[in-house]
């Protein structure tokens, strides 16, 4: 089995992502108000310049620190009941037309009721284009195949385990990247919990530009 690496963080597809932005905005507003209040109280030109530079450094450094702290705290909250899922593929990298198994396991930290588990193979298209002087970025997820399973009750110390099979379509596109267009393959894992935050995580697959013969899918 080949371990798959999570792509991005747990906040990327979480409802908490918007709250993260508000926390950063409020911090920036408070520091900014304090900074400009300090500058307005300074009379000497030299102290004004010093205050301007120091305030700018504090603001930028504070934004970076708050962004990292908020991300860490939210990730801890999201995984209080179920740890970050681990994913492994029976074959990797993959070719066009190739079949493979995906194994998911996640440690259950505290009693929880899972409403639904879904594991989806997607082809994600990222496009960047310019209209006039404005640059636009769009992302489209093309659903290739989805596995869904009703959940159940899990006790602390148990393991959430699932094994599913997928196939990269023979007529699809392999992994591709340039400055304005990207085609990337992912396994999308979604764990919906009753009375708690849901877990969403992407795991990237490497799909090579090689076409497998029908007989090459034997195990």
Give an overview in words:
With 219 residues, this protein is of the alpha+beta class. The protein folds into 2 domains: 17-78; 81-208, Immunoglobulin-like, CATH 2.60.40.640. Helix content is 27%, strand content 45%. It contains 2 helices and 12 strands; from the N terminus they run E-E-H-H-E-E-E-E-E-E-E-E-E-E. The chain has helices spanning 17-41, 45-78; strands at 2-4, 6-7, 86-89, 94-96, 99-107, 112-131, 134-154, 159-167, 176-177, 181-193, 199-205, 207-211. Strands 2, 6, 7, 9, 10 and 11 form a 6-stranded antiparallel β-sheet that branches. The protein has a 4-stranded antiparallel β-sheet with strand order 1-3-5-8, with no helix packed on it. Strand 9 and strand 10 form a beta hairpin. The longest helix has 34 residues, at 45-78. The radius of gyration is 23 Å and the shape is flat. The mean pLDDT is 80.
Oligomer: single chain
CATH class of the largest domain: Mainly Beta
* Total domain units: 2
Low-confidence spans: pLDDT under 50, at least 5 residues?
A: none
Which structural class matches the secondary elements?
alpha+beta
User: What is the tally of helical segments?
Assistant: 2
Quickly give the CATH architecture of the largest domain: Sandwich
Q: Ends: how far apart?
A: 13 Å
Report the strand count: 12
The dominant shape is flat
Strand content: 35-45%
The CATH topology of the largest domain: Immunoglobulin-like
Q: How are helices and strands ordered from N to C?
A: EEHHEEEEEEEEEE
Largest sheet: 6 strands, antiparallel
- State the helical fraction: 25-40%
Q: Report the C-alpha radius of gyration, rounded.
A: 23 Å
How much is the average pLDDT?
80
